[in-house]
């Protein structure tokens, strides 16, 4: 699907950064890795990918703002637009040689996400969407959420707290309520891809707490444009800023949300 100039810039940047990451992924045992925090790592590959993305995106749109996982925030001359970027979502997978990680790029305009790209470079899958234009995979595959109606036939995805995070008890309670009612829960370690997989009908739903804007901004738009219902865990909250989301196809959503919200 031909997209806007901005979407084409985003996809080109993602592919260029993806080539760099794939090259480093093949030599993952040689990466120089330093600790950022408990269970959270930063690598030379991650930093190099962000540098490429910044050069490509800000080079093409120098007035836009910027916020990213490694490089912090830059205020643009145009206060209405900013790039929201995760150069390597699934860093721990990457560093363990697991081919499940992605580049996530979103464009925000006046507080709304208007375009999103999630690129799984290891599998060469480019998920993308623009507001009102649907969601797509690679050149021509229109994405649609799953049509399953029954929780017991449905698969859900989430993230599990690591390294002693304070939200572990709440997540365990979620799982205790959800698992008996479903076909299973998956924890693949990359929230952007979890959201893209809901869009593609590979999962029926996704929920997680404690996410950052760059984890979800692109994926939420892609899921929504594929027909998913998308809401904050707290109905009065803000998904991108609070980092708490519930996403599912329409037939499942109310049942799923009721379990997670303990209604």
- Span between N and C termini? 41 Å
Question: Helix coverage percent of residues?
Answer: 25-40%
Proper CATH architecture of the largest domain: 2-Layer Sandwich
Report the sheet with the most strands, covering strand number, pairing sense and barrel closure: 8 strands, mixed
What structural category do the secondary elements indicate?
alpha+beta
Q: How many separate structural domains?
A: 2
What attributes characterize this protein structure?
263 residues; alpha+beta; Fructose-1,6-Bisphosphatase, Chain A, domain 1; D-Maltodextrin-Binding Protein, domain 2; 2 domains; eight-stranded mixed beta sheet; five-stranded mixed beta sheet; 8 helices; 35% helix; globular
Provide an overview of this structure.
This protein has 8 helices and 15 strands. The chain has an 8-stranded mixed β-sheet with strand order 4-3-5-6-7-8-9-10, with helices on both faces. With 263 residues, the protein is α+β, with helices and mostly antiparallel strands. The mean pLDDT is 91. The longest helix is centred in the N-terminal third of the chain and has 21 residues, at 5-25. It folds into 2 domains: 5-142, Fructose-1,6-Bisphosphatase, Chain A, domain 1; 151-261, D-Maltodextrin-Binding Protein, domain 2. Strand 1 (33-37) and strand 2 form a beta hairpin. 44% of the residues are buried.
């Amino acid at each position: 699907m031909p997209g806007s100039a901005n979407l084409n810039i985003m996809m080109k940047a993602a592919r260029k950064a993806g080539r760099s990451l794939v090259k480093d992924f093949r030599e993952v045992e040689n990466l120089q890795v330093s600790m950022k925090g408990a269970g959270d790592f930063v690598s030379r590959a991650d930093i190099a990918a962000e540098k490429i993305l910044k050069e490509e995106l800000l080079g093409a749109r120098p007035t836009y703002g910027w916020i990213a996982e490694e490089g912090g925030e830059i205020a643009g001359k145009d206060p209405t637009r900013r790039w929201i970027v995760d150069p390597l979502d699934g860093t721990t997978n990457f560093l363990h040689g697991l081919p499940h990680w992605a580049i996530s790029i979103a464009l925000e305009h006046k507080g709304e996400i208007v375009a999103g790209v999630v690129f799984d470079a290891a599998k060469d899958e480019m998920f993308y969407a623009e507001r009102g234009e649907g969601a797509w995979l690679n050149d021509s595959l229109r994405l649609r959420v799953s049509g399953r109606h029954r929780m017991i036939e449905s698969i859900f995805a989430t993230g599990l707290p690591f390294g002693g995070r304070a939200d572990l008890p709440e997540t365990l309670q979620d799982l205790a309520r959800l698992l008996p009612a479903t076909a299973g829960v998956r924890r693949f370690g990359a929230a952007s891809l979890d959201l893209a997989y809901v869009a593609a009908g590979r999962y029926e739903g996704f929920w997680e707490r404690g996410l950052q804007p760059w984890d979800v901004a692109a994926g939420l738009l892609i899921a929504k444009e594929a027909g998913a219902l998308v809401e904050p865990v707290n109905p009065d909250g803000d998904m991108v800023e609070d980092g708490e989301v519930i996403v599912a196809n329409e037939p499942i959503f109310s049942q799923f949300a009721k379990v997670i919200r303990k209604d």
